[in-house]
């Protein structure tokens, strides 16, 4: 197998099982799968350091929501997905209603596939300041919420975690929710998958730009990460395409032919290494691909995630009340 880029715990589990040809569940990993109407929800629980080492993800919970086709064009489906996101978040948000939540939109406004986080912050119901300036309107049933979109190192010159840590030290939130664009291993999961985890996040990890982790260890407060894969590695696409071609040739070749034997004996590790070597020599090895309708999709996904967060952090309000508040 080639070295692939993915931020999804679900895919990291799949890759490990495929590589080691394991049919039973990985030691240290618990996997739960359920379907709510046509929305598939899977949970990967990394239970100990053994499981964490095997799939390369910190111990904790990773909930993956698979979005139905054409969700970006269907307001009703968007609302249903938001409700599923809210329920998944509620499982991880274990603080009293009066406690403060800081929502952080990671990413670069100027790059559409990376703009998910900042766009989500635009749709968050902000209430922290109103507790002071409008106490007669905001009662104790409304949770104090604030948000920031700190930008990226290449624009600000400041590590994102340093900006967030400064805000955390000043505001003293009881929970931080970070939203970021991710990278996927499989093309079909791009823009169709939402991952929610309680272990924090490493900005840019999926595209090879590892920054300092945004987690409880570095911030001193619990961090929940929400991400959507918006890009896929070009090497991954090339590798999968060649696999499909080889499988097709095998199925259409005579069992006893030399050509058939050659294809059956093709080492996938060697093939993957050759693909990466060829692409890198052509200055394509670091190419990241995103779908052509990314503008529309990012707008829709940001609304889904923002509404999900609003419902989860304001459990005493329904969506209609939240929309009225947002104007």
From TrEMBL:
UniProt key word Hydrolase: yes
Residues that make up the propeptide removed upon maturation: 1-7
Keyword rRNA-binding applies: no
Catalytic activity: Endopeptidase action with P4 Glu or Asp, P1 preferably Glu > Asp, P1' hydrophobic and P2' Ala
Post-translational modification remark: Autoproteolytically processed. The inactive tetrameric zymogen termed p46 autoprocesses to a smaller form termed p41, which is active only during spore germination.
Gene Ontology molecular functions: metalloendopeptidase activity
Alphabetical keyword list: Hydrolase, Protease, Zymogen
SUPFAM superfamilies attached to this UniProt entry: HybD-like (SSF53163)
Enzyme Commission number, as recorded: 3.4.24.78
GO biological process, one term: proteolysis
Regions annotated as coiled coil: none
Oligomeric form and interacting partners: Homotetramer.
Classification via HAMAP family: Germination_prot
Functional summary from the UniProt entry: Initiates the rapid degradation of small, acid-soluble proteins during spore germination.
Similarity comment text for this entry: Belongs to the peptidase A25 family.
Name this protein carries in UniProt: Germination protease
């Amino acid at each position: 197998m080639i070295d692939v880029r993915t931020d999804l715990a679900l895919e990291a589990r799949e890759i490990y099982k495929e590589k080691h040809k394991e049919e039973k569940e990985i030691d240290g990993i618990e996997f739960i799968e359920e379907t709510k109407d046509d929305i598939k929800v899977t949970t990967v629980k990394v239970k100990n350091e053994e499981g964490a080492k095997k799939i390369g993800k910190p111990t904790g919970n990773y909930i993956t929501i698979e979005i139905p086709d054409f969700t970006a064009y269907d307001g009703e489906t968007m609302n249903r997905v938001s409700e599923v996101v809210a329920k998944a978040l509620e499982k991880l948000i274990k603080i009293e209603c009066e406690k403060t939540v800081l929502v952080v939109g990671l990413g670069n406004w100027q790059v559409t596939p990376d703009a998910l986080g900042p766009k989500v912050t635009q749709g968050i119901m902000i209430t922290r300041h109103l507790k002071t300036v409008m106490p007669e309107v905001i009662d104790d049933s409304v949770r104090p919420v604030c948000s920031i979109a700190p930008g990226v190192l290449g624009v600000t010159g400041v590590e994102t975690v340093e900006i967030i840590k400064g805000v955390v030290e000043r505001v003293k939130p009881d929970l931080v929710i970070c939203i970021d664009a991710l990278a996927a291993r499989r093309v079909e999961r791009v823009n169709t998958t939402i991952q929610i985890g309680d272990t924090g996040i490493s900005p840019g990890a999926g595209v090879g730009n590892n920054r300092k982790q945004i987690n409880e260890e570095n911030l001193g407060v619990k961090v929940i990460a929400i991400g959507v894969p918006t890009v896929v590695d070009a090497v991954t696409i090339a590798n999968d395409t060649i696999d499909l071609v080889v499988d097709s040739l095998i199925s259409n070749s005579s069992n006893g032919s030399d050509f058939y034997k050659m294809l059956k004996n093709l080492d996938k590790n060697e093939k993957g290494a050759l693909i990466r070597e060829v692409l890198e020599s052509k200055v394509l090895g670091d190419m990241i691909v995103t779908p052509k309708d990314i503008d529309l999709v990012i707008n829709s996904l940001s609304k889904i995630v923002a509404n999900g967060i609003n419902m989860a952090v304001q459990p005493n309000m329904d969506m209609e009340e939240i929309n009225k508040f947002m104007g």
